[in-house]
Amino acid sequence: MMPEILKKAIKQPKKAARVLHHRILQRVNGQSQFKKVIVIGRARTGSNLLLSYLNSHPAIHMEGEIFAHQRHKTEQQILKMVFNKQPQGIEAAGFKIFYHHPMDNKEQSKIWDILKADPSIHVIQLQRTNMLRMHISRKIAMQSDVWTASKKSEVDKVKVKTISFTKAELEEGFNKTKNWEANAQVDFANHPMLQIEYEKMISNPEQEFRRLTDFLRVEAMAPETKLRKQNPESLSNLIENYAELKAAFADTEWAVFFDE
Q1: For the chain, how many helices (H) and strands (E)?
Q2: Residue 152 domain-assigned?
Q3: In what order do the strands lie in the sheet with 60-63?
Q4: Greater confidence, 195 or 16?
Q5: Which three-class secondary structure state does DSSP give residue 89?
Q6: Does the residue 212 lie in any domain?
Q7: At the N or C end, where does the chain have fewer CB atoms within 10 A?
Q8: CATH number for the domain including 216?
Q9: Averaged pLDDT score across all residues of the chain
Q10: 9 in a domain, yes or no?
Q11: 244, burial (CB in 10 Å: exposed 0-12, middle 13-18, buried 19+)
């Protein structure tokens, strides 16, 4: 069976080449004077967009979901990839981690205890105000297996976007996200912490990125990305039972999510 890392390299050769170049510079010209950073959140809140913005800055290096699966590696072995040394010129480095990571041994892993115990780590908490849009995006991505798009052809590749939910399914998802976000703010109260909203990244990217560069104390500049919005359609066009769900949530705190 082909190793997962080789599959990713074949699928994204340019990214693989950049990662390899970065690893070489870490070894031959590494330094330890950089800020440690983590982006915490959950899937489909704009984490790929946020990381693409951060990685467009020459003084920032962010890895992806390095703790999605530990695969029998220790926390220290994985953290060494990012928090050991960085090439000269990198002033902030880290990775993103979702609340439910690692998916293979969440109960045994000590990664969250390790991160919470290090107050030098800068925490960026990414949130999506409209949690319904987040669940729509997640379900479509799971259905199509298309998680990012940098070209119009990749957006158009997803032919079937209509999905449906039960009230209980959404209610559970909304409450779980709300609790995760609230608990994280308590757990990382002693850390430098910044909340970023997906909607504001979309509506005013330069202003939001200025908040990020100020937070990380790196030079301010405009963010860049090649990623495209994947599901711009109206809620009623994406959800088969939209009217039913809107009526079911009408008198709840989640009613605002159903406003078109």
Answers
A1: 12, 7
A2: yes
A3: 60-63, 92-98, 35-41, 122-127, 193-197
A4: 195
A5: coil
A6: yes
A7: N
A8: 3.40.50.300
A9: 87
A10: no
A11: middle
**Pairing of the two strands 86-87 and 35-41:** unpaired
Indicate the SS3 state at residue 102: coil
How far is 218 from 210, CA to CA, in rounded Å? Answer: 10
In a domain, 18, yes or no: no
When pLDDT is cut at 50, 70 and 90, the band that residue 26 belongs to is low
**How many C-beta neighbours within 10 Å does residue 76 have?**
12
Confidence at residue 143, expressed as pLDDT on a 0 to 100 scale: 81
The domain total for the chain is 1
What mean pLDDT comes out for the span 43-67? 95
Per-residue pLDDT band for 171 (boundaries 50, 70, 90) equals very high
| Percent of residues, the chain, with pLDDT higher than 70 | 84
The C-alpha angle 83, 107, 43, rounded to 5 degrees, equals: 65
Task: Determine the average pLDDT of the residues in 80-97.
Answer: 94
Residue among 47, 148, 42, 45 nearest 94 (CA): 47
Residue 78's domain spans which residues?
A: 32-258
Alpha-carbon span 184 to 176, nearest angstrom: 12
- What is the H or E stretch that residue 182 is in? helix 167-187
At residue 161, the pLDDT reads 77
